[in-house]
């Protein structure tokens, strides 16, 4: 593998490679060597850029959560009515939250890591805070909290069910929730 003396994008490539490796083999299957190979960088670059695997995982999952949050915010930015909010949420659940082929796996890997290691909960807390802040542009704080949990549950069910319900069922659930 050829090394580059001036490689300003190396750190970013390592982070993106880490996400790819995690999606493929989980956090448990992620090693410095596998990430370095995927990023096309010398193994020594790993310890140069990251003091530990936990630091790399924090950076990778933070990047992932921020990307998903940006899609979430973009989808809800133009919403002007309750009906448009319901439509936007349906699109989030059925399209945006699974925009990348690895999004479900990365989401669940992050949740598992945060459940096992409290230091990673800050990433999930920040992610939830950003989602609720976007929702609070359309509903009150209490409703945004519950609506965020509903969206998460719907996303997981739609993603994992071998015969997922359709957009109409999601829309009905959201409209029913918003009417209560």
TrEMBL record:
<feature type="domain" description="HTH tetR-type">
    <location>
        <begin position="8"/>
        <end position="68"/>
    </location>
</feature>
<dbReference type="InterPro" id="IPR009057">
    <property type="entry name" value="Homeodomain-like_sf"/>
</dbReference>
<dbReference type="Pfam" id="PF00440">
    <property type="entry name" value="TetR_N"/>
</dbReference>
<protein>
    <submittedName>
        <fullName>TetR family transcriptional regulator</fullName>
    </submittedName>
</protein>
<keyword id="KW-0804">Transcription</keyword>
<dbReference type="InterPro" id="IPR001647">
    <property type="entry name" value="HTH_TetR"/>
</dbReference>
<keyword id="KW-0238">DNA-binding</keyword>
<dbReference type="InterPro" id="IPR036271">
    <property type="entry name" value="Tet_transcr_reg_TetR-rel_C_sf"/>
</dbReference>
<keyword id="KW-0805">Transcription regulation</keyword>
<dbReference type="Pfam" id="PF17940">
    <property type="entry name" value="TetR_C_31"/>
</dbReference>
<dbReference type="GO" id="GO:0003677">
    <property type="term" value="F:DNA binding"/>
</dbReference>
<dbReference type="InterPro" id="IPR041583">
    <property type="entry name" value="TetR_C_31"/>
</dbReference>
<feature type="DNA-binding region" description="H-T-H motif">
    <location>
        <begin position="31"/>
        <end position="50"/>
    </location>
</feature>
